[in-house]
Amino acid sequence: MAWLVLIASGLLEAVWATALSASRGFRRIVPTVVFVVAMALSMLGLAFAMTEVPVGTAYAVWVGIGAALTVLIAVARGQEKLSVVRAALLAGLVACVVGLKAVS
After folding, report:
1. How far is 24 from 86, CA to CA, in rounded Å?
2. 17-26, long-range: CB within 8 Å, 24+ apart, which pairs?
3. Partner of 74 for a Cys bridge, out of 1, 8, 25, 79, CB 3.0 to 4.6 A?
């Protein structure tokens, strides 16, 4: 259960990071509310996961999922470009997250 919550929390990290950007410095209300709610839920999930998953592993997985998904969201929205090198590096990041799960 802790791993599922950790993965969901990583997904929420991408939500709050994207909402933070969309809030334009907290000047837009809806993205700001999404940011606050998603961040709170993401942190609660991370805290819960850390009761069973070692802190270093949990944090690395949380950040890795959030970072990779945030980039993919930005690419899908046309805000960033995805080169072959960037795609390979993101794949490496995801492989590291999977590896951490495999050895935990």
Report:
1. 26
2. 17/66, 17/70, 18/70, 18/73, 18/74
3. 79
